[in-house]
Amino acid sequence: MTVGPDPGVFISSAQMYQELRTLSDGITRVETKLDTISKDLTEVTKDLTDHETRIRSLEQTVWRAAGGGRRRRPRRGRRHPRPIPDALTAAPPSGRAGPLHHVGDQPRTGISPAR
Q1: What is the pTM of this model?
Q2: Which has the closest alpha carbon to 60: 69, 72, 73?
Q3: Are 97 and 107 in contact, with CB atoms under 8 Å apart?
Q4: Contact 107, 98 (CB under 8 A)
Q5: With contact defined as beta carbons under 8 Å apart, do 66 and 58 qualify?
Q6: pLDDT by residue (tens digit) across 22-68?
Q7: Parallel, antiparallel, or unpaired for β 100-102 and 106-107?
Q8: Per-residue confidence at 113, pLDDT binned at 50, 70, 90?
């Protein structure tokens, strides 16, 4: 008994087309389900964020009502400006037109004295 060559499997064009259509329809259904799941997940995330915000607000209110909360430290620095000494607010000495910037009561003229 001799065995001839294996004839293989024959798939007609109609069968191939039908399998591709079935596969395409299945992929379309999966895409639709994934879009629905993505939309629902986005809504759940928004709800969760909203609930977290509300819970934090309620906990903060209860904490403050119980006398807790952050204690504020006193502010550093001066609350009121220091008083200006009378020497700075007094009228300039007679014969002088403005503030003195040089040692020896020399008025500032824009020209540097020779050194």
Answers
A1: 0.38
A2: 69
A3: yes
A4: yes
A5: no
A6: 999 999 999 999 999 999 999 988 888 888 889 999 998 888 888 77
A7: antiparallel
A8: low
> How far is the C-alpha of 10 from the C-alpha of 21, rounded, in Å?
19
Instruction: Identify whether the C-beta of residue 35 lies closer than 8 Å to the C-beta of residue 41.
Output: no
Amino acid at 38: S
Inter-residue contact 96 to 107 (CB < 8 Å): yes
Dist. CA 46–CA 40, nearest whole Å: 10
Q: What is the DSSP track for 70-108?
A: PPPPPPSS-SSPPPPPHHHHSPPPTT--S-EEETTTEEP
Largest CA distance in the chain: 140
